[in-house]
Structure of 4-diphosphocytidyl-2-C-methyl-D-erythritol kinase:
Amino acid sequence: MSRSTQEVRVRVPAKINLLLAVGDLRPDGYHDLVTVFHAVDLFDELVVRLADRHSVRTVSPGSKAVAGVPAGARNLAGMAARRLAKEYRATGPVAIEITKQIPVAGGMAGGSADAAGALVACDRLWGTDVPRDRLAAIAAELGSDVPFALRGGTAVGTGRGNLLSPVLTRMQLHWVLGLGHEGLLTPAVFGELDRLRAAGDPPRVPGVEDMLSALASHDVHRVAAALGNDLQAAAISLQPGLRRTLQAGLQAGALGGIVSGSGPTTAFLCESAQAAADVATELAGTGTCRSVRVASGPVPGARVIG
Ligand SMILES: C[C@](O)(CO)[C@H](O)COP(=O)(O)OP(=O)(O)OC[C@H]1O[C@@H](n2ccc(N)nc2=O)[C@H](O)[C@@H]1O
Ligand SMILES: Nc1ncnc2c1ncn2[C@@H]1O[C@H](COP(=O)(O)OP(=O)(O)OP(=O)(O)O)[C@@H](O)[C@H]1O
């Protein structure tokens, strides 16, 4: 906790789905998933303070306003704070400031990260000491990706993506991320996959076994070969330019490339940190994405810092 018990600072990572197998549409509007989540060192930071009323403000690292993120009651971080406050009554309103590096509507679970960060920060600020499994259950109510943002590392996700079991790998992966010009909304991408499947039956990615044995082998070439995402065809169908970005990353020397989650961020796996820096420079020069970042993982989930 920084300075006094009046303020808590939390850091929370973005995710990439190394493997994302999507089942058919369920009656409740969700799809069963089998996925391998992987947290990378691209972080949102939250500062949460006691205040007279609940508020959420989101800025970029340069303190500029961030487009596309709701400021009020619809912000996932504010929803998380109010959800926790409702269950644990000895609490007060909070002002949440988010410094956002995770791309908005980018397929890297940015909103989910902020919700997880707010849960951890409010729990510390209010001294509620919520057991970890209870916090994970509240996280799952807020969104399918929120439990993983709490936990981080590498994990297999099943159910809606909210049921997690850790993957014990020490293998460090080096990535180049291509950020899209425009976001994609997650429900639209799942809907497009349903439409493509009704019209044709496109190929489906295999289960997680190949990816898990590739991670256990510590062979980055095998991990690259095992990357896969059932939502990729749907994201490309909605944003055809992504095909060119994927080709450009591979031509720049990446070992493998995928659309991250529901997109449009593209994630390129590279042989080493140096290779990632080289691929990033070359990919940036192709003009096929809005901007380019390097990242590596796995990293832990939402944590109090400072
Ligand atoms: C694409 C992924 O990022 C992969 O990890 C996640 O599945 C998305 O997780 P999320 O953004 O936390 O999604 P939620 O907020 O739970 O759901 C938003 C919408 O996405 C669709 N959705 C989400 C998760 C899931 N397993 N099946 C779905 O069909 C549904 O239309 C749902 O209404
Ligand atoms: N704190 C937040 N940060 C970003 N978006 C938020 C937040 N709260 C609510 N939203 C809304 O959620 C929508 C999805 O944004 P988000 O950045 O979480 O997408 P995403 O990373 O593609 O999600 P996922 O990868 O979990 O499917 C946005 O349209 C935005 O309006």
Q: What stands out?
A: Residues 17, 20, 29-31, 33, 35, 109, 112, 143-145, 160-161, 186-187, 190, 261-262 surround CDM (ligand 1) (CB under 6 Å).
